[in-house]
Amino acid sequence: MDRSDVDAKPTVVVLGGGLAGITAGLTLREQGYPVTLVEARQFLGGRVFSFTDQATGHRVDNGQHIFLSCCTNLLRLLRELGVLPQCHLQTRLRVPVRDQDGGMALLAAAPLPAPLHLLPALLCYPHLSLLDKWRVVSTLAQVKFMDLRQPSLEGISFYQWLRARGHSQRAVEKWWDFLAAPTLNDHVQDVSARMGLMIFQEGVLAGRHHTDLGYPVDDLSACIGAPAQAKLQALGVVLQLGSPVRRLVVESGQVKRVELAGGEVVAGQVYVSALPFNGLLAALPESVAGDPFFHRLQELQFSPIVNVNLWYDRQVMDEEFCAFVDGPLQWVFNRTRIRARLAGVAADGRGQHLCISLSAAWEYIDQDREELSQRFIAAMAEAFPRARDATVHRAVVVKQRHATFRCLPGASHHRPGSWTPISNLFLAGEWTDTGWPSTMEGAVRSGFNAAQAVTETLGRR
């Protein structure tokens, strides 16, 4: 990179070191812009991070993160960071599905073109009646070719849309909500029809391999935050870690500088905010936050996720992961077996670390951690017979009250694009208008969108 080219371009200050900020910073730096990235914590990754459990010494993710093959921008970032080998991506979808009574089904993609690839699994799916299956197939065929830009789809819930097409309550719960809730972190009763349909159209029906499921094998910080920090530093990005943003100083329609909680000041010519929407509102001057463009962010809401980590003295679960269609359990991940992939060896069976992932967790977010642990130890004993005689050595409950934004009906109207009325301020964050729900893919897309907005705007100038 020619030094004079770097010096000729304005300095960009990126606020926030999550996936959105990482992507925006990397993209702009690779295009020749001097970049300073400010992050509140001492590490990068945002809501994708790990910590060390002091009692066991094990690395624990803040939550089990999964993605699909259709998350093309996330996969692009993982390749750029050189960490795709630290993730496992299925060659075709295969999800063991249990019920609380011990029944087992397999949701697996067949070697058929989409959308027929899921037809054999659906026909054998034991949790739906024959009529329910027929209606699901008919609806999926309709969704495949729908225009999701219809304004009416944003004004009603996905549940209303499904019920209007004759789907039973059982079909809604055992199929549509079962597949939608982990992605949207909300139930079909509360998400817009447009966003519910989008995840089926894009994630299920667009291609045979779009549903292939992936997840980090190493811990999240080792797979995302640390490699991103190394990559940014190697490119010459200035990292200012442990520096929460306190205030954006706006004068004459432009951001002039950013004041940090420790008293430091960061200044540049262009600013990209990859802060959460509530953090951005708190940092803006009151007069700017009251502008209709920014004021609408107050209408966005958060949805919680809870993860319950249990360490057993023996192996109680064989699968790498499984999903549940009823009872309190939703998804259970065998972290011992997943991490064994990293070493290329089989789990030794002497003990087992399992992670129970609970989406849309309003029922649990305010519950005492010890009570939650006991509740899910009991639920695991009911679902896995070998867990009844096993001893749980350690339980760690991780709560994320602000895990994702909610795709409520009408929420898309409150999601801004990358441009703002402040001429040198651009927005990133999975809550911006990416067309995707609150996922890792949405965060990465928003970072690319913000970088593109910066380059287009500066190019016009």
Can you tell me the CATH superfamily of the largest domain? Answer: FAD/NAD(P)-binding domain
Number of helices: 16
Predict the CATH topology of the largest domain: FAD/NAD(P)-binding domain
The helix content, as a percent range, equals: 25-40%
Outline the structure in words.
The protein has helices at 3-8, 19-30, 72-81, 119-123, 130-144, 152-155, 158-163, 169-184, 193-203, 220-235, 277-283, 286-289, 292-295, 335-343, 369-383, 440-460; strands spanning 12-15, 35-38, 50-52, 59-61, 67-68, 87-89, 94-98, 104-108, 213-216, 238-240, 245-251, 254-260, 265-266, 270-273, 302-312, 321-324, 331-334, 352-358, 392-405, 425-427. The chain is α/β, with parallel strands linked by helices and 461 residues long. The protein folds into 3 domains: 3-48 and 219-300 and 415-460, FAD/NAD(P)-binding domain; 84-88 and 302-405, Polyamine Oxidase, Chain A, domain 2, CATH 3.90.660.10; 110-208, Guanine Nucleotide Dissociation Inhibitor, domain 1 (Orthogonal Bundle), CATH 1.10.405. α2 (19-30) packs parallel to α10 (220-235) and α2 packs parallel to α16. It is globular. It starts with a helix and ends with a helix. Mean pLDDT is 94; it is low at 1-6.
